[in-house]
Amino acid sequence: MNTGLVLLVALTAFLGTATCAPSEEKFTTKYDNVNLDEILRNERLFKKYLECLLADNDSHCTADGKELRKAIPDALVNECAKCSDKQKEGSEKVIKHLRDNRPQDWEKLQAKWDPEGIYNKRYAERLSS
């Protein structure tokens, strides 16, 4: 099964949870109540987040997308240790949606953020269920 923490981090874009003050141990929960189902169903919204994550720079990103791009390396390396439980639950929802409904987008995200498959291998067992 093709899985990885790459999408766990991608969820952060949908939640807008990537902002973290240096003194905090968790990402902000400011956007935890964003309706993920609405974003996943809305092609226009979904494409904007995807475009942000796949671009070479953050010029295509909203403010939360820019923060996400800054947080991705930390979240990958540290197994989303700064994510809240709600953010982790949302991540599973987004992973399942992308694997089941948008496999090409899932592959693009992995190619961008995990080209060597390091994180995919590290988190495959945990995210395969």
Write the layout of secondary structure elements.
Layout: H1 5-15, H2 36-41, H3 43-54, H4 63-77, H5 85-101, H6 103-113, H7 118-127
Helix pairs in contact: 1-4, 1-5, 5-6
Structural write-up:
This protein is mainly α and 129 residues long. The chain has a single domain (5-127), classed as Antennal chemosensory protein a6 (Orthogonal Bundle). It has 7 helices and no strands. It has helices at residues 5-15, 36-41, 43-54, 63-77, 85-101, 103-113, 118-127. The chain is globular, with a radius of gyration of 13 Å. This is Chemosensory protein. Residues 1-20 form the signal peptide. Keywords: Signal.
Described by the principal axes of the CA atoms, the overall outline is globular
Q: What is the ordering of alpha helices and beta strands?
A: HHHHHHH
What structural category do the secondary elements indicate? Answer: mainly alpha
The overall pLDDT, averaged over residues, is 77
The CATH homology group name: Insect odorant-binding protein A10/Ejaculatory bulb-specific protein 3
- Could you say what the CATH architecture is? Orthogonal Bundle
How many domains, in number, for the residues? 1
Distance between the terminal alpha carbons, to the nearest Å? 9 Å
Helical fraction equals 55-70%
Could you tell me the strand content as a percent range? under 5%
Largest sheet: none
User: What is the CATH domain class?
Assistant: Mainly Alpha
Count of beta strands: 0
| CATH fold-level assignment | Antennal chemosensory protein a6
Helix tally? 7
Radius of gyration, whole Å: 13 Å
Uncertain regions: pLDDT < 50 for 5+ in a row? Answer: 1-8, 12-23
Keywords: Signal
Protein name: Chemosensory protein
Signal peptide: 1-20
Pfam families: OS-D
